[in-house]
Known about the structure:
Blueprint: H1 9-28, H2 40-55, H3 63-81, H4 90-93, H5 95-110, H6 114-138, H7 146-153, H8 155-182
Helix pairs in contact: 1-2, 2-3, 3-5, 5-6, 6-8
Amino acid sequence: MVGKRIPRKNLVLGALFIVLGGTLLLWTSGKLSGVLSFWPVLLVILGLYLLYRVYILGGSESLVFYGIFSAQAGAFLLLLNAELMGNLYFRNLWPFFMLFAGVALLIYGLQRKGAYRVRYLIPAVSIILLSGVFLLFSLGFIRVSLKTILVQFWPVILVLCGVFLIVFDFFRNKIHSRKAEDI
Length: 183
């Protein structure tokens, strides 16, 4: 494979140096010990590789979501392994993964046009807001149990669904009216 070049090689090397340098800094400072604590770096590298395939090599746009989610989740798990999150346990931090999925979907949706943008942005914002609510409960900012609040305020879910449908209909009709004007 003589002559095969890596597009934007400085970008690739720069990203690898940041990931590896940051990980080695955690290791030399004593925050990471043992080989098993390094496994989240593989998720970060996988995520960066997927994003490289999309943005530099022109790969499938569907990889954007997986790339962003993998990079975020890997970085988060690396910080968790380094015990930089304090006395928090994984069972309290699961809503962060919902948040990562929502952010990844939001970024992917912002790249879309027209009705497809709305189809991604509304669920993305909903997932982000829902993960924020779950984080308030799982991190102990709200002392009442989620079950107690849901039993009393479950009709709010119906109201939110109604608002979602109206917003979706508004954007859908707005897009269709623009297409009709162009004809």
